[in-house]
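User: Structure please.
Assistant: Input sequence and predicted structure:
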Amino acid sequence: MKKSHRTLRLGTRGSPLALRQAEEVRQKISALHAEVAIEVVPIRTHGDWQPGQKDRSFIDSGGNKGMFTKEIEDSLKSGAIDIAVHSMKDVASRLPDGLVIAAILERADPREAFISKKSRTLDDLPPNSTVGTSSVRRQAQILARRPDLRVVPLRGNVDTRLRKLDEGAADATLLAVAGLVRLGVADRITSIIETDVILPSGAQGALGIEIREKDDALRTLLQALNHAPTSTCVRAERAFLEMLDASCQTPIGALARLQGDAITLEGLAARPDGSELLRMNETGPARDPETLGASLGKKVKANLPQDFFTA
């Protein structure tokens, strides 16, 4: 690429984890295009500033995936920034018109971390112990496995949640392994929960770079950052979420794995209280991950009561 005549403005949330992720992307772009100047632009999103909501779960506060991306995407559409960096698990399954995901970086560990000073694993927690989380997906799977536990709201950035845990707000919590590693606090992990116990959120651990659809030059610049295997898996997971019209209010999980030319997708839907939980999987050709995701989504829907997502 020829020498840049302007600074590339990279938009992100302002949380410590989001800024760390943005810096990771900035470094990768700079390593490939040293001539490109990049400015990181923190943007406060609706999910970051809701007054009075800090200790309520997303299912109570009416949250959805757009609550962490809307203001950033608005800035992208207006031209205030040139690229946006997101945790792909926060990105709505349907992008706003005029925007595209230009690259998805190689996925970090998608599993959940169990953190507690009182027990080694989720199964070791004594009855009536409290687990703090703001995720209805985690809540549903915890209660499905351990209905004797109590799930309490625990919101805030990663450091805030860890501090609240240390202060006794809960006996344990679950956080994404990828985020803890990126923040350099992996030593706080008590144990890692395998995906057969807690299925992660679709696209958990993957970072995406969003641009304006018509910005062909920028799309070309970012091509080398795209990790094709991760992109294939994330596309399948997002198609599954879209078929189920998933939001942060819906306890849904998804994880795809590549096996040569095939991709296996596992999906989950549950009641928030864990009283009903369905896990299914399907395998299809890796060349068409969206079809696989939609197909599994249809199968899950067909095996659930009609009022499952509205009751």
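The chain has a mean pLDDT of 91.
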